[in-house]
């Protein structure tokens, strides 16, 4: 009987010890500070989320193309969830005296998009997504390799597949629409999508102003 009581006591003690250690690890993760590089990335990532959500919301209002509508809905859902995770990291660092990131202004792009309709809007929207996603995916990949903040490291690792997925959808849309070089001067950029080289033409004036 005493042996049974002893075993029960040991089991309870071990459970309590594990819970205490887990709580300590979680607390340590929450109390981690961000390096200057991590803070700069957090600012950029949240600004990008805000810009992509704003463009996607406009696409839902202006586009009737099923592919564009589905892509816009996916971006709103995924970026909102991603921003919530980034906000949790921000909340912890703000309590430690870190400044809250200020979203970058996207007014010029939104104004230009607002002036477009139909096929021109859809192609420009997809082109902007491609441009922005290559940039932000590169930022996520770079941060993933150097990040020491546990929470931010998990976010950067988990976010990339979804970002690449939306990039692929946008690329597939433009391919299906036979997106070609326009008469205006442009430069050819060879970009890497899932290991395959994809030629993308960027208008030298502005992709938003490209005459589709």
Automatic annotation (TrEMBL):
Q: Where is the signal peptide?
A: 1-28
Q: Which residues form the DUF4142 domain?
A: 38-170
Keywords of this protein's UniProt record, alphabetized?
Answer: Signal
Q: Name one Pfam family in it.
A: DUF4142
Source domain of life: Bacteria
Determine if Signal is one of this entry's keywords: yes
Q: Does the keyword Transport apply?
A: no
PANTHER family for this protein: BLR2558 PROTEIN
The entry's protein name is: DUF4142 domain-containing protein
């Amino acid at each position: 009987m005493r042996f049974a009581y002893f075993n029960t006591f040991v089991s309870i003690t071990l459970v309590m010890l594990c819970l205490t250690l887990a709580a300590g690890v979680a607390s340590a993760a929450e109390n981690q500070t961000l390096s200057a590089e991590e803070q700069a990335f957090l600012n950029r990532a949240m600004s990008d989320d805000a810009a992509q959500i704003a463009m996607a919301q406009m696409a839902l209002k202006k586009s009737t193309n099923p592919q564009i509508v589905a892509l816009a809905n996916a971006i709103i859902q995924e970026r909102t969830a991603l921003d919530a995770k980034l906000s949790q990291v921000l909340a912890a660092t703000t309590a430690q005296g870190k400044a809250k990131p200020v979203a970058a202004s996207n007014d010029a792009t939104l104004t230009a998009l607002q002036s477009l309709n139909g096929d021109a809007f859809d192609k420009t929207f997809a082109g902007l997504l491609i441009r922005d996603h290559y940039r932000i995916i590169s930022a996520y990949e770079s941060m993933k390799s150097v990040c020491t903040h546990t929470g931010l490291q998990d976010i950067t690792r988990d976010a990339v597949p979804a970002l690449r997925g939306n990039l692929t959808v946008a690329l597939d849309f433009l391919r299906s629409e036979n997106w070609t070089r326009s008469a205006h001067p442009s430069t050819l950029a060879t970009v890497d999508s899932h290991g395959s080289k994809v030629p993308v033409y960027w208008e030298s004036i502005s992709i938003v102003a490209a005459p589709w």
